[in-house]
Amino acid sequence: MKKVAIAINPSKDEKNEIAMKVKEKLYKYFNNVEIIMLNSYDIINYEFKELLDLIIVLGGDGTILSVARGINGKLNVPILGINIGNLGFLSSIEVSEMDKAFLKLKEGNYISQKRMLLTCDLPLEDIKNESLALNDIVVARGTLSRMVKFQIFIDGKRYYNFKGDGLIIATPTGSTAYSFSAGGPFIYPDVDVITITPICPHPHGMQTIVLNSGSEIEVKAENEDEEVYITFDGQKAIKTTNQTIIKIKKAKEYANIVLFDDYDYFKVLRAKILNNWKECEGD
């Protein structure tokens, strides 16, 4: 490792105490490493003049999502997430595992797994270069508006019309997030598919559909003069005009997530998603 960036969520590490520990560990395991400190909120505006070997993200899943969107339109640098948030499903390690993780990095006992990104084509000026999503792109009604009528086309062919609160177009990475909460299936992270899951459809005839990642999805949302929003990874929201045609497809860019040789997806799924869900249900 010659050049490493540390992207900090300032709300999770206000005094930079964890960031300083990460720097110390990097200097311990990698001689002459150059370290760049970044604020995760501003990373989309940062100009990377040289290639990075690694970007370490300090935060939770939301921080990793924002960093993945912010950097991977520019460079496909591996992301190592260190969880200092709540869930940490996308994180590679916990803070207590830094020594073990950096030793594995030094010895090359890891992989950089490509994760699909989605992109949205809209005739709106304010989403240019910011339309990527690692988890999902959601088309949904405003908080107080009525149900929306959705028309869905896949590769130019009409799939389904329905009324409801919204649609979740998700990557395999995002299958454990909002899509799962709305009744969608878990998809293994490296499977090359896209899912469409309705939010509160009326009637209940529409279920999740799984598509080849090469499919192009067109959504036309009709809600008269009321609000319809497109949201990227639950973080960036764009208000659309009535009957705007929204085109969503797999992006050319992708995110690289660092996974170590002892990574067990199903163990993480049980610990971070399934067990938490059962606890919420009082099980």
TrEMBL record:
<dbReference type="InterPro" id="IPR017438">
    <property type="entry name" value="ATP-NAD_kinase_N"/>
</dbReference>
<dbReference type="GO" id="GO:0005524">
    <property type="term" value="F:ATP binding"/>
</dbReference>
<keyword id="KW-0418">Kinase</keyword>
<dbReference type="InterPro" id="IPR016064">
    <property type="entry name" value="NAD/diacylglycerol_kinase_sf"/>
</dbReference>
<feature type="binding site">
    <location>
        <position position="146"/>
    </location>
    <ligand>
        <name>NAD(+)</name>
    </ligand>
</feature>
<feature type="binding site">
    <location>
        <position position="235"/>
    </location>
    <ligand>
        <name>NAD(+)</name>
    </ligand>
</feature>
<feature type="binding site">
    <location>
        <begin position="135"/>
        <end position="136"/>
    </location>
    <ligand>
        <name>NAD(+)</name>
    </ligand>
</feature>
<feature type="active site" description="Proton acceptor">
    <location>
        <position position="61"/>
    </location>
</feature>
<feature type="binding site">
    <location>
        <begin position="61"/>
        <end position="62"/>
    </location>
    <ligand>
        <name>NAD(+)</name>
    </ligand>
</feature>
<keyword id="KW-0547">Nucleotide-binding</keyword>
<dbReference type="GO" id="GO:0019674">
    <property type="term" value="P:NAD+ metabolic process"/>
</dbReference>
<feature type="binding site">
    <location>
        <position position="163"/>
    </location>
    <ligand>
        <name>NAD(+)</name>
    </ligand>
</feature>
<dbReference type="GO" id="GO:0046872">
    <property type="term" value="F:metal ion binding"/>
</dbReference>
<dbReference type="InterPro" id="IPR017437">
    <property type="entry name" value="ATP-NAD_kinase_PpnK-typ_C"/>
</dbReference>
<dbReference type="InterPro" id="IPR002504">
    <property type="entry name" value="NADK"/>
</dbReference>
<dbReference type="Pfam" id="PF20143">
    <property type="entry name" value="NAD_kinase_C"/>
</dbReference>
<protein>
    <recommendedName>
        <fullName>NAD kinase</fullName>
        <ecNumber>2.7.1.23</ecNumber>
    </recommendedName>
</protein>
<dbReference type="GO" id="GO:0005737">
    <property type="term" value="C:cytoplasm"/>
</dbReference>
<keyword id="KW-0963">Cytoplasm</keyword>
<dbReference type="GO" id="GO:0003951">
    <property type="term" value="F:NAD+ kinase activity"/>
</dbReference>
<keyword id="KW-0067">ATP-binding</keyword>
<dbReference type="GO" id="GO:0006741">
    <property type="term" value="P:NADP+ biosynthetic process"/>
</dbReference>
<comment type="similarity">
    <text>Belongs to the NAD kinase family.</text>
</comment>
<comment type="function">
    <text>Involved in the regulation of the intracellular balance of NAD and NADP, and is a key enzyme in the biosynthesis of NADP. Catalyzes specifically the phosphorylation on 2'-hydroxyl of the adenosine moiety of NAD to yield NADP.</text>
</comment>
<feature type="binding site">
    <location>
        <position position="165"/>
    </location>
    <ligand>
        <name>NAD(+)</name>
    </ligand>
</feature>
<keyword id="KW-0808">Transferase</keyword>
<dbReference type="GO" id="GO:0051287">
    <property type="term" value="F:NAD binding"/>
</dbReference>
<dbReference type="Pfam" id="PF01513">
    <property type="entry name" value="NAD_kinase"/>
</dbReference>
<feature type="binding site">
    <location>
        <begin position="176"/>
        <end position="181"/>
    </location>
    <ligand>
        <name>NAD(+)</name>
    </ligand>
</feature>
<keyword id="KW-0520">NAD</keyword>
<keyword id="KW-0521">NADP</keyword>
